[in-house]
């Protein structure tokens, strides 16, 4: 890959929906904070990738303490997030001063695979955008004032991260569009007039939002470890 590769990991969430006073990115998952699993996923993909971690100012000391406790030593660029995800990503993009490709990823998606990360960079290298997405499994109905009606689920996708872009494209998108209510980077790029390219994500690439998600993530990690141990034997 000729383009310089970046990972911008956004970790500004709180533990409200998960019922914890600890921000969900710092909750323990199989012996490590969720956020460390996420960061390690990108280093498993490439030791050469430049990782930018966006944290709330109020959580930087907590992160430093966790790194000391777990002997977690990685050459990260750490910057301060904003009041919204939009502002946090915008702040993180300011840390990139060269052209290349940047994978923007939720800090609480710790199970992203090497294959998905690699695919995101491959697709973005060709199309300038690459958005991980999966098809819906369940039936879908839309509700209005008169009741509900079924819709064709094949017309819809669940959007995940990483969302990977040519650096100059996504920087321009964040510079030209100021709707801070937008909750993902594909929407920002689209609002700025750019098309977006979807690629197949993974149902295992879950976002830790509720207590149930932690249980599922723990089980998936143990399955992966068991499979790796089996291969080694």
Model description:
The chain is an alpha/beta fold and 233 residues long. The chain has one domain (5-232): Spore Coat Polysaccharide Biosynthesis Protein SpsA, Chain A. It has 7 helices and 11 strands. It has helices at residues 34-45, 60-69, 85-93, 114-127, 167-176, 185-191, 211-232; strands at 5-10, 28-29, 32-33, 50-55, 77-80, 101-106, 129-135, 140-144, 147-151, 157-166, 198-200. The longest helix is centred in the C-terminal third of the chain and has 22 residues, at 211-232. The protein is globular.
Please outline the helices and strands.
Layout: E1 5-10, E2 28-29, E3 32-33, H1 34-45, E4 50-55, H2 60-69, E5 77-80, H3 85-93, E6 101-106, H4 114-127, E7 129-135, E8 140-144, E9 147-151, E10 157-166, H5 167-176, H6 185-191, E11 198-200, H7 211-232
Parallel strand pairs: 1-4, 1-6, 4-5, 7-11
Antiparallel strand pairs: 2-3, 6-10, 7-10, 8-9
Helix content: 25-40%
Q: What top-tier CATH class fits best?
A: Alpha Beta
SSE pattern: EEEHEHEHEHEEEEHHEH
In terms of structural class, how would the helical and strand content be classed?
alpha/beta
Biggest sheet descriptor: 7 strands, mixed
Query: Cα-atom Rg, whole angstroms?
Result: 18 Å
Number of strands: 11
CATH H-level superfamily title: Spore Coat Polysaccharide Biosynthesis Protein SpsA, Chain A
Dominant shape: globular
How far apart are the termini?
A: 32 Å
